[in-house]
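FAQ: What does the model actually see?

It sees only this:
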Amino acid sequence: MGDIDNFKVYNDTYGHGGGDECLRKVAKVIDETLKRPSDFCARYGGEEFIIVLPYTEREGALFIAEEIRANVANLRIPHEKSLPSGLVTISLGVATSDINVSISHEELTNHADAALYVAKNKGRNRVEAYQELSSPSA
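And it is asked to produce this:
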């Protein structure tokens, strides 16, 4: 799951037309980064995107997520109120599922969303993977 950093401020600064254009450019670069015909992305809501990479292990998903992050930054879309870069950036949360483990699409999406919020809380313009919380020992 990816979320354009500080997009509300971008929209407020550059207007809804500018925001729409930004969304189109980011969506295009995400789509162009995906390698296989089965990989796809979709706008999930607002400035969020869901990126699905079927049959991709964690390391591969992290690699693609980092490529997406770098490619969005390389668009060099000005965003004067996004510190420190002054450019549009994206944060991404990665969640994967073992083919032998049953997990719903909703739960996998929730895991990706949790990882996305870790990326946001750690400063944005980064990729984070979902980490299962282990229960404390007694």
